[in-house]
Amino acid sequence: MRYILMLSFTVLALFATAQNAIKNVFIETYYITDAKDASDTTGGKIEAGFKTYRIYVQMKPGCKLLSIYGDHDHALKISSTSEVFNNTDFGKSFGKDFNKSNYGRNTVALDSWLTLGQTTKKSAITYFGVPKSMDHNGSFIGGANNDGGSSSVPGGVLTNTDPLAGIPLTIADGMDTMPKSSVISNNWVQHGFLDPISGEDSTIFGSIKRGNSFVSYDAYLTNSGVMGVNADSNMVLLGQITTKGQISFELNLQVSDPGVDPSYSNFYVAKGLDSTYTGLHKIITMSPYLKYPPACGCNDPNFLEYNKKYVCSSSDSCKTRIILGCMDPTACNYDPAANYNVKFLCCYPGLCHDRDLSKACPLNGEPVLRLDVFPNPTKDQLVVHTTTAIDSKETKVIIYDYFGKVVFEKNLGVVSGTLSNNLDLSNFQKGIYLVRLFVGTDTDSRMFIKE
Predict the structure, then answer these.
(1) Is 328 found in the same domain as 284?
(2) Nearest to 344 by CA among 353, 334, 331
(3) pLDDT tens string 248-270
(4) 277 inside domain
(5) Residue 239: beta bridge partners?
(6) Is residue 312 part of a domain?
């Protein structure tokens, strides 16, 4: 049994997508400025056409975000192709520091800042960022809630209803409170953004000077941990950026994951290699979602071109479907069609890892019949497909487990032409199997993994 466990877990680790605590990063177009907003000079001149973006991380349910950071191996980068807007009136570097009443002044609500979920606090009520589509408690921003800015615009500013910005701010402001049973994050600490003596922020999150890029190998914003307002979606706001340009970023996050040993710190980085420092109790995992714009390529683990850094698929990037098998020509079950060698599958006279040698080794020589199976690895369904035509012959399929024991058999009757048959594997245990197709006196086999 130890052989099948070792082999199953080894191959699954190579081909299955990692169970990452970071499920996605979501960018919301929060607002687009118009001429009314551009009339204000109190908070610093902003032109029509500026877009305010909000960046959310989506985590597995139960996970908590502990920090956003840059260290000597992983830079924290947030940039735009043009200047970033910061309100000079009541703007802040961090979302947690906003006074709720100040959101009603001029263009304060469009300020650029970082946060770990929190957007403002009033008395005992703390507000957290949520996508506007998930905000169902109304709005305290824009329109009648706004002072109209320096021009005292009748009806207030921040009233643009451009459909490209989704729900208007006068209807949903993207701020909500946590469920009553939630523990509100505390113990906030920042480093690398504010001058330690003056307390002023000269980065793109401050209003001292305008810029378009923040890059740091020594910065962090941290607290005791925060989850999303909605526990199921678990989306936590990371920051807000207002600019006329195209944004890009590389983020690094520390996450508390109840599914991993709690004595370890789980760090997710935009670039770099996965690593585990057991002495430091530190796990580092590269998450492709933390880099924007995302890298596109082959993100299907069933193909040789697969790379976990890809979060979107580009056309024709997946070209070579993985065929597992023994690629040692001296082995009795050498598979000339295989393109990914699984060493423990190879059998030799007297050495077949306790399996039935007669079942583990298919017929040698060039097969008349050619079989393909997909997806591989698979979870519930397996398609058995022939790439050569069948000339009206009795056909059946047999699946063997790792030790050569028959676990499934199905007679497909007389088949003509190519075969494509879907098999239900939902009741199979996880592991490696051999599927063999018999067509008259011809046969061909393929290995597959059940996840």
Answers:
(1) no
(2) 353
(3) 999 999 999 887 766 777 999 99
(4) yes
(5) 55, 114
(6) no
Q: What angle do CA 404, 409, 412 make, to 5 degrees?
A: 140
- Number of domains into which the chain is organized: 2
Residue 37: strand, helix, or coil: helix
Q: Which residues of 370-392 are buried (b: 16+ CB within 10 A; e: fewer)?
A: ebbbbbbbbeeebebbbeeebee
Q: Show the tokens assigned to 68.
A: 């956003």
Tell whether 256 and 352 lie within a shared domain. Answer: no
pLDDT in tens, 87-101: 999 999 999 999 999
Residue 307 lies in a domain: no
Same domain, 112 and 43: yes
Please give the pLDDT value at position 268.
Answer: 95
In degrees rounded to 5, what are phi and psi of residue 96? -65, -20
> What local confidence, expressed as pLDDT, does residue 362 receive?
59
Q: b/e for 56-67, b at 16 or more Cβ within 10 A?
A: bbbbeeebbbbb
Q: Identify the sign of the CA torsion 214, 215, 216, 220.
A: positive
pLDDT for position 18: 39
Q: Is 309 part of a structural domain of the chain?
A: no
Q: Which residues contact 90 (CB under 8 A, 6 or more apart)?
A: 43, 98, 99, 102, 105, 108, 111
Domain containing 143: what range?
Answer: 17-292
The widest CA-to-CA distance across the chain, in whole angstroms, is: 90
Does residue 392 share a domain with residue 286? no
Question: What does the pLDDT read at residue 4?
Answer: 38
Indicate whether 332 and 380 sit together in one domain. yes
- State the pLDDT at residue 8: 39
Environment class of 207 (CB within 10 Å of its CB; exposed 0-12, middle 13-18, buried 19+): buried
Strand partners, 189: 222
Q: Are residues 237 and 129 part of one domain?
A: yes
CATH number of residue 424's parent domain:
2.60.40.1930
Does residue 225 come out as left (phi exceeding 0), alpha (psi in the -120 to 50 range) or beta?
left
Asked whether the beta carbons of 307 and 328 are under 8 A apart, the reply is: no
Query: pLDDT tens-digit profile of 376-417?
Result: 888 889 999 887 778 788 889 999 887 778 899 999 888 888
Please report the pLDDT score of residue 19 as a whole number: 53
Q: Considering only CA atoms, which of 112, 93, 78, 82 is closest in space to residue 216?
A: 78
For 32, list phi and psi in degrees, rounded to 5: -130, 125
Q: Could you say which residues of the chain have pLDDT below 50?
A: 1-18, 364-366
**343 class by beta-carbon count within 10 Å (0-12 exposed, 13-18 middle, 19+ buried):** exposed
Neighbours of 353 (CB within 10 A): 16
What's the predicted TM-score (pTM) here? 0.74
What tokens does 389 get?
């035509």
